[in-house]
Fold this sequence. Notes:
- 2 copies of one chain form a homodimer.
- By secondary structure, the first copy, chain A, is α+β, with helices and mostly antiparallel strands.
- Helix content of chain A is 34%, strand content 26%.
- Chain A is globular, with a radius of gyration of 20 Å.
- The model of chain A is unreliable at 318-325 (pLDDT under 50).
- At the A-B interface, helix 1, strand 2, strand 3, helix 2 and strand 4 of A face helix 1, strand 2, strand 3, helix 2 and strand 4 of B.
- Chains A, B: Mg(2+) 5 binds at residue 216.
- Chains A, B: It catalyses: thiamine phosphate + ATP = thiamine diphosphate + ADP.
Amino acid sequence: MMAGGEFEIISRYFNRKTTYRRDVETGIGDDCALLNLAPNQTLAISVDTLVEGTHFYHDIAPDDLAYKALAVNLSDLAAMGADPAWLTLAISLPKIDHPWLQAFSDALFEQLDYYHMQLIGGDTTRGPLSMTLGIHGLVPAGKALKRSGAQHGDWIFVTGTLGDSAAGLALLQDKLSTATVEQRDYLLKRHLRPTPRILAGQALRDLASSAIDVSDGLLSDLGHILQASGVGAKIEQDHLPLSATLQAVVSREEAIDFALNGGEDYELCFTVPEVNREAILVALENLGVEGRCIGQILPASEGITLFDEGKKLPYQPKGFDHFTA
Amino acid sequence: MMAGGEFEIISRYFNRKTTYRRDVETGIGDDCALLNLAPNQTLAISVDTLVEGTHFYHDIAPDDLAYKALAVNLSDLAAMGADPAWLTLAISLPKIDHPWLQAFSDALFEQLDYYHMQLIGGDTTRGPLSMTLGIHGLVPAGKALKRSGAQHGDWIFVTGTLGDSAAGLALLQDKLSTATVEQRDYLLKRHLRPTPRILAGQALRDLASSAIDVSDGLLSDLGHILQASGVGAKIEQDHLPLSATLQAVVSREEAIDFALNGGEDYELCFTVPEVNREAILVALENLGVEGRCIGQILPASEGITLFDEGKKLPYQPKGFDHFTA
């Protein structure tokens, strides 16, 4: 009597014969997946959990949830300069909802195929809706981008624009409204469908001295680089890349707050030695990704300071933390 | 304001400088962990989720939970013949309970050290108590034990004894009682502290034709071998290894039912070609692990049949399934 049961869910929705990777010796269907790495490849592994109510709303569309769950994890690979390879998915479901599972798994496999990734295992359990994704990427040995390489004098860059995702979240929470549908759609898309900067991350491998993805908020995430590298920083907040839409929808002050503290932008924040500054801009331009210099690494004794049009501001760090938020 | 927050929990309880592995380039503290495999090593990955109410009771002791969560995952590596290496832990907690976290993490690291494993990453979120462990092991290239290698004529073996764990669960559920405290302690320990058969699994690598761990129940798990290998089987149920305690506490019929269908024994079920039958018994004896032959692989057309003292019985498969149980 396994109709509608765990094994049936896995075989019906998650054991698809789509992308095959040659480095997968055994995928779903044994006690473990078996993977063979090429010589001189380093394995990069990251794990993220998404819980209903904490990371997404009850009424999120299943395809948006699948997209975001994968994008959040891909963003961790991007921040290391890794090439996506394999995914594990542990999902808890309160009940078996076939249309939901169909839409969720369709969207997941569309993204997996796009990134030439293979789902290699997981677990399906009954429980409150939540999921833990384990993402595995590959990076040439010695080339991974770490948080610990920033040096005094390096320039601080970010990709894309910051703060849009926080504005999108505020829209979902009815804390914000827009003048036009186009503005609303843009900000919601930036929140629900962030673009993991996979190719940009790979382009940074030989040029950046450190990198992180902006998940908790720029100041919080840059703080991790500063701590790991034993350095300080100054940020020119008038240099923050703000989208035209964000600037049209909220005040300048709020836009800057969203950009500094909002989180979930999934852009890359990285540091670049002076010698590679031009090369970085060329590399990103070739990918069609905007890169903006927003500050510079200082000695640790300087802490982290914000400037606005050349004037030093008082600084109050705010990072997102699931247990204190 | 991170006191008691996510970062503080990770650094206080889970980012311990205990076992260091030379193949871990970067562990906890960056966007991804970075791992370097030796040439000719195949990576084995398994993921298991444990949810309160489904996989453990609310009042389980934190050290028992840590032990079991890891043992369940180690058992998947054992079934592949893999050597444990790295763990990821994604844990959802309803609140921050420092004594609980201390006891849980102490027990977890005690086991990790025992198996020379390193915790390389994870995620801490607020939510109903649940956890997803991702376990990573290493196996010499081409040597992993798969479910798909069983051949007509191979002998079916199991390690240890079967059914004790189901009896221990029945005790926790007040569905069973024992005459002595020693009997109760033995059965509870078999349920709460199963022994992952890591060394036995490695000893089987050159001798067994297929293997699986007994998590859902012998018949259900053997069924996976039969399906993957395209074969059938007969089981001599009077050959099932039953502990003296189990036989003293329940009827013969119930002991056999627990052994066939109970699950969570985390023993290995494996198949062995006739030519390796003696070598297997010697290899297991050298490890102090009992191995018992309980049946033989037949052609697929025979399905799966149970015999008792040479007499064929009607067969009704029952496997544990989270959505139909």
